[in-house]
């Protein structure tokens, strides 16, 4: 099939990085400046739209022809901009994204990074950032350009010529990247899923703009009150200044570390020499809770129709292919402490009314209630309601299935109370006694924490991190790890089986089977973990190296680190199993997104293992939705899936 490769350069006064492409293209001054394209192996052509050149008629036809595949690096950007500028439909089923292809292989998600890692003969033009900054974003007035708001081609003809060549070169590089990756194709099922993902992102989810506006005002007012109280207490011009505050604390006899982060606060509060010092530390601590980033992101990215779009990144976590959050990050929201739907409804209506004093009277300091209400800023479309359904304990089910830990599978096939069952097995007490009101109910907490913390080889540190309510004495952590591992011997064995299989595949450059359709396969410097769903996780530039810390050989591969640098990393069986489990859980979600889409359920949002339907009144119901999600999956025979759901007039957790 013919492939039409496209790259564009654009202008908009809206900040693309901060606001997202859908808000970016709504700016009145948005336009496509350059349109570069090529068919298959033909030379790349660049159309200069600023010079009143026209995109050829045949290209315009082919952009809506289902028999022509359109391809771009980060195709969501090209699709969105082309649709806005030319007013044509850009059906994602006709497109392919080479950035997604790179992510599926564990490679960087930016064109320059991929080209560098693949050592391509065609390199991305390093001058691009400066040229984009010059022509594609508003400019600050200077002595040179006076009050000029943007730079146009005639202001710097030489730079403009370089910009044209930069656009051309991006298509050349994108084509070479695609050729390099085509030996490891993305399964067609995944392209179908990506097309669904694009439709979800294009449709977006509706926001309550008044709730967002009032939340920002409430947070700002509270911050001002705290700052004023700190000024009156300390006499400082700027009590938010770390330098000024540290000097003030030192004058009162309290030496502080370099920062005044939350980790240091308990010690500093205990060491406070007087009540004023203690009060100032408490104010500082409270000011650290007033982050308004989620509401600010909503205000920046909301489109003209009150919807926020582009908040899901397909294969954003490329080690597992799970989705990642973008723009408004919905994947790291605080746990709901207000579990009663009526309380949430009252709180959100009080906030919307602008009665911030009543809100604080009812729920205490604003940071708490504002964090609880972030989810509720997402609301159904007119005439619709949200149907929310999520998998129950999906990772615990998948790991038990993968390891053949039969007693856990039997629990999920039966009553499903995995925390109580785990506690009974760990501590040797009757399962039926782990109920509220009985002394043995105290075992449920360590059973739950151990289940959540230990499945992927986690030890004391993992238990401590998962014990958020601090229900377990720290001295018990090590013993709990041992007890959980003894209660789950097949899961523990799976960690070592996975590591041995992966290392054997690398050493012998062959395929080694693990369990339930999972196998490790070495090819062209990659270690692949083939999954039963039909796609494969990838570990690039894999090697076996001696691990000095443990005195044995270990598996290493290249990936982007926390700073975005391409660097060698180590892994072991527990992490390999975590990757497998999260990837299979993702595939279960993906399978059911396709099923629900086929059943006509509009899905504006999904978060982790949860799907949100934005359904017209009279269409669909929770029972049907959870039944669909609980059906067996052909490629995972014996995996016991179960979903639970609820109906709501605003997004929340049940």
UniProtKB/TrEMBL annotation:
Top enzyme category: transferase
Molecular function terms from GO: DNA binding; DNA-directed DNA polymerase activity
One BP annotation, GO: double-strand break repair
This enzyme's EC code(s): 2.7.7.7
Keyword Oxidoreductase on entry: no
Reactions catalysed: DNA(n) + a 2'-deoxyribonucleoside 5'-triphosphate = DNA(n+1) + diphosphate
One Pfam family, short name: DNA_pol_A
Domain named DNA-directed DNA polymerase family A palm: residues: 371-619
Signal peptide, first to last residue: none
Record keywords: DNA replication
Stated name of the protein: DNA-directed DNA polymerase
């Amino acid at each position: 099939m013919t492939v039409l490769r496209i790259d564009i350069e654009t202008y908009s006064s809206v900040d693309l990085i901060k606001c997202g492409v859908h808000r970016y293209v709504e700016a009145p001054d948005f336009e496509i400046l350059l349109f570069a394209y090529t068919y298959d192996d033909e030379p790349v052509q660049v159309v200069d739209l600023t010079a009143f050149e026209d995109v050829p008629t045949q290209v315009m036809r082919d952009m809506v022809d289902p028999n022509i595949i359109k391809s771009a690096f980060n195709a969501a950007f090209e699709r969105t901009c082309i649709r806005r500028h030319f007013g044509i439909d850009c059906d994602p089923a006709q497109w392919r994204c080479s950035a997604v292809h790179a992510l599926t292989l564990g490679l960087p998600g930016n064109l320059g990074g991929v080209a560098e890692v693949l050592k391509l003969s065609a390199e991305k033009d390093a001058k691009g950032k400066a040229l984009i900054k010059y022509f594609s974003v508003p400019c600050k007035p200077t002595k040179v350009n006076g009050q000029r708001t943007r730079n146009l081609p005639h202001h710097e003809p030489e730079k403009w010529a370089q910009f044209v060549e930069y656009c051309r070169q991006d298509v050349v590089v994108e084509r070479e990247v695609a050729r390099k990756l085509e030996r490891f194709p993305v399964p067609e099922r995944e392209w179908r899923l990506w097309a669904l993902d694009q439709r979800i992102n294009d449709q977006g989810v509706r926001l309550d703009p008044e709730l967002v506006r009032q939340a920002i005002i409430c947070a700002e007012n509270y911050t001002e009150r705290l700052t004023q109280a700190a000024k009156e207490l300390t006499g400082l011009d700027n009590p938010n200044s770390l330098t000024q505050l540290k000097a003030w604390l030192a004058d009162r006899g309290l030496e502080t570390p370099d920062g005044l982060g939350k980790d240091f606060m308990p010690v500093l509060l205990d060491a406070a020499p007087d009540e004023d010092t203690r009060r100032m530390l408490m104010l500082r601590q409270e000011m650290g809770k007033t982050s308004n980033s989620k509401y600010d992101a909503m205000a920046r990215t909301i489109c003209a129709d009150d919807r926020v779009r582009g908040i899901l990144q397909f294969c954003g976590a490329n080690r597992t292919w799970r989705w990642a959050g973008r723009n408004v990050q919905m994947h790291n929201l605080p746990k709901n402490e207000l579990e009663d739907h009526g309380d949430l409804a009252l709180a959100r209506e009080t906030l919307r009314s602008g009665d911030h004093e009543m809100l604080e009277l009812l729920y205490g300091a604003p940071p708490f209630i504002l964090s609880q209400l972030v989810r509720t800023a997402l609301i159904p479309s007119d005439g619709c309601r949200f149907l929310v359904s999520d998998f129950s304990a999906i990772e615990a089910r998948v790991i038990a299935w993968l390891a053949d830990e039969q007693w856990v599978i039997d629990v999920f096939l039966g009553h499903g109370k995995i925390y109580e069952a785990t506690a009974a097995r760990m501590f040797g007490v009757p399962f039926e006694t782990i109920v509220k009101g009985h002394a043995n109910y105290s075992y449920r907490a360590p059973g739950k924490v151990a289940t959540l913390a230990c499945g992927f080889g986690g030890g004391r540190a993992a238990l401590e991190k998962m014990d958020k309510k601090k229900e377990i004495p720290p001295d018990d952590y090590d013993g709990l790890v041992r007890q959980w591992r003894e209660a789950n011997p097949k899961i523990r064995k799976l960690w070592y089986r996975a590591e041995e299989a992966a290392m054997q595949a690398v050493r012998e450059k062959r395929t080694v089977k693990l369990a339930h359709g999972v196998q490790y396969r070495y090819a062209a410097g990659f270690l692949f973990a083939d999954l039963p769903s039909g796609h494969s996780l990838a570990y690039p530039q894999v090697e076996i190296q001696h691990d000095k810390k443990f005195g044995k050989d270990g598996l290493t591969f290249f990936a982007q680190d926390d700073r975005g640098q391409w660097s060698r990393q180590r892994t072991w069986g527990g992490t390999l199993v975590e990757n497998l489990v999260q990837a299979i859980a993702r595939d279960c979600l993906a399978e059911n997104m396709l099923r629900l889409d086929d059943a006509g359920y509009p899905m504006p949002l999904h978060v982790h293992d949860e799907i949100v339907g934005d359904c017209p009144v009279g269409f669909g119901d929770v029972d049907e939705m959870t039944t669909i999600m609980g059906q067996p999956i052909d490629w995972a025979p014996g995996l016991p899936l179960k979903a639970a759901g609820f109906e709501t007039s605003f997004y929340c957790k049940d």
